Amino acid sequence: MKVQVNLKTASQAAAGLQLSVVVDDADTVASTKERVASLQQIPFPEQDLMLDGEVLEDKSKLADCGVKDSSSIDLVIRASEASLVKQLSDLLQARDLSCDELGLLYCYKHGVSVGQALKMVGRVPSLQDFIKNHKAFQVENNTVALIRDTTPLKPFSVTAEVEQILKAHGGSMDIKDLCTKFVQKFNVNLSSIVGGMKPQDYLARETELFIVNSRGQVSLKHATKVLNAPRSNARNGPPKRQEADAAGGTALSEVADEPAMAEGQQYLDLHNKICGRAFSSRVQQALASIVEAISQALFINVDHVVKGGSVGKGTAINGLTDAEVVFFVHGLPQVGHDRWLPPLLRAAAGVLVEQLGGDRTMEGIHTTEDSVKLFAKGLVTVDVKFSPVFASYAQTVQVLGEQGPEARRLYGSSLVEQRTQFISRQSSGVKVTIRLLKWWRDQQEWSNKLVRPTDEILELMAVYSAVQTRPSDQRQAIANVMSLLARFDELRIVWSNYYNKEDVWAPLLRQRPLLMDPVNPFVNIAEPQVFDARELMSIAASTHFFW
To answer: What pTM does this model have?
Structure first.
């Protein structure tokens, strides 16, 4: 059955939004509230579902409460300034934050921007103004601090919190696991609040509390002493091995500290090595030559050609020079790709092999599910694709919406122009961050293809982070993205550059993590079936960028 849900806030008597929701007689009040909250991105858990002015019990079924087809029910969101203060206070437990950092943390913790939350509680000022008006916070030099109730103020102690985590896990842990637990508890990377030091170096420095061994494990010192204490009936073998571990940890802790993370120039120096001007010019010229050669070889009625991929977007680096070239062809049907695309790809591949096969710069030409792939020796890998001509972006999306989920997969090339422009029009600083992230990804050892973050994921995370935090240099930009990646499973990002939230395919809004394609309202880039984020989260939470 279909019901009308009227969204209200406690501070506003009139309904702010009305929407139609399909529910079942057996659905509970609690599950209905959860579903609406997920669809509308409501950050406040205090909610009442009401029918004819009466609050419905969470455990009750809708049918038992008198809800029937076409019923009008109210969802009253009991958003209050006190609730928002509590949410912000939780984010400031670990350390002081700038207003931008606090806003970013709130957004991916609760799924909406702070501005939206302020509107729900009936306030329209900026976050900074809201904070200044509450005694729970103090602002100095654009840094927000939490005024604690204890007197005198008890500072946040990293060593004490690490000690508590270790005690809760038997006194010993892998450093990577420890860092992950720290992030889960405090919403911040351990390295980001210890001056950018590597977690292993920081823990090894605290010789009074911790012992770090060469296998990447950390133990509480008193726990190790208990383990190493001789027993009256012990043999000589095991205690010697335990002493060797402890000795190894002590020796490691006495090594001089490595320098803390270098300033932004270190990142710019690296960037110049992986993507100099000469390199960028060379790959752009190579792609232009390949496109010209393909255009001359293929006898098709082309409307226009769009270049995408890393080269087209301007984010290529040494060793990662992929390109996507889409020919928009007159006469191709706008539907039924599964029927006309395979024979077209085979025919195009045959022509290109015949025309370009003798070119010594070409290492290979073969077909894939949706492209003809060309390998240009030492320069660029090109995916040649074909698309029907659409009158506009709006028409493309409309046709997409009329197809089933499987058929939509083959329409990606039709949106290449918008997808490429979304990245290519970003600032030069954002594109530097994207290139550095690609380099970082390629330095890691990923267990399989499913866990390796794609270019699209890194690109969109860099853009989102830059918009939310406005970093002052590349060191800060990378740190902000790493903090996001460490909590990837909590992401809920929907763009508004090309389509509205109402255009998003409804089932996607219930997925977590959610990282929408900025130009295709039917695609979640982070769909769990195609990307497993656990390995990325672990690496981002526990490693230094230059490790």
So the answer is: 0.54
